[in-house]
Write a structure and sequence with these properties.
The protein has 10 helices and 10 strands. By secondary structure, it is of the alpha/beta class. It has one domain (7-266): NADP-dependent oxidoreductase domain (TIM Barrel, Alpha-Beta Barrel), CATH 3.20.20.100.
Length: 283
């Protein structure tokens, strides 16, 4: 990857820009609108949101305000945990389309495999939900469908009834939190790994080893973490609401981390904490 607009090719042939602009914890309204607009003007062509983030309307407005044609901006959103079932999913997707102000979504993800409300019938409910996403995919309303926070046993359960194999698995991937088993299993099924919280929700800035490596390359800690993610074959989704940081996070294509530094960063186990257990979430 040599530029922020370079693309991975998903298993269904859809092309997805190699870095996405994350919007988790970005308030709806003016903050979401202005940060997304700033990101697109800084060169991002991939915006990641979710129903659970509560900011789809602001994200959609930011895309419009950028002046860049909708067809040039890749939008991802995700199903909220409180919704499962065939018709409920169809209705929820339509709500996302309305809030985003678009008639299609480039990538739609099943956000968590085992929400608290469906803890005991998650397999059945995910199967019904996935069937609805497949129907919308066949209609062209969803250009690609995937999953998020799924571990191997969740993937296996979904594939018992799925017609379409998910094209991506979006999981938490950050320095020291590499989820190797999930990554390897997902790749074995042809999925792209998307890395949310690639900066460890800001905790990466407190890691002495990351500061040392950043100084070695004359880059910021964030740039090193994002570059590490790319060189590992992930699709990082950095988030910021500060214009200068938004631009800085996109400037990661003029240097390359050595193999030794890639391994060193991966080996900083627990430096930014670890991913939540999707079988024991409270939301």
């Amino acid at each position: 990857m040599n530029a922020i607009t370079d693309r991975y090719i998903l298993s269904n042939g859809v092309k997805i820009p190699c870095i996405g602009f994350g919007t988790w914890q970005t308030p709806d309204g003016e903050v979401a609108r202005s940060s997304v607009r700033e990101a697109i003007l800084a060169g991002y062509r991939h915006i990641d949101t979710a129903q659970g983030y509560g900011n789809e309307a602001g994200v959609g407005q930011g895309v419009k305000d950028s002046g860049i044609p909708r067809g040039e901006v890749f939008i991802t959103t995700k199903l909220v945990n409180s919704v499962r079932g065939y018709q409920q999913t169809l209705d929820a997707v339509q709500e996302s389309l309305d809030k985003l102000g678009t008639d299609y979504v480039d990538l739609f993800l099943l956000h968590w495999p085992r929400p608290v409300d469906f803890k005991h019938n998650w397999k059945e409910k995910n199967a019904e939900t996935w069937r609805a996403l497949e129907a919308l995919y066949h209609k062209g309303i969803l250009k690609a469908i995937g999953i998020s926070n799924f571990h191997p046993h969740h993937i296996d359960a979904l594939l018992e009834t799925a017609e379409i194999i998910p094209v991506a698995n979006q999981i938490r991937l950050a320095p020291g939190d590499t989820q190797d088993e999930v990554v390897d299993y997902s790749r074995g099924k042809g999925m792209l790994l998307e890395a949310y919280s690639p900066l460890g929700v800001g905790r990466v800035f407190e890691v002495p080893e990351m500061k040392e490596i950043a100084e070695k390359y004359g880059k910021s800690i964030a740039q090193v973490a994002i570059r590490w993610s790319l060189q590992r074959g992930y699709l990082p989704l950095p988030k910021s609401v500060t214009p200068s940081r938004i631009r800085e996070n996109a400037q990661v294509f003029d240097f390359e981390l050595s193999p030794a530094d890639l391994e060193r960063i991966a080996g900083l186990k627990g430096c930014v904490g670890f991913s939540a257990d999707p079988d024991n979430i409270s939301w």
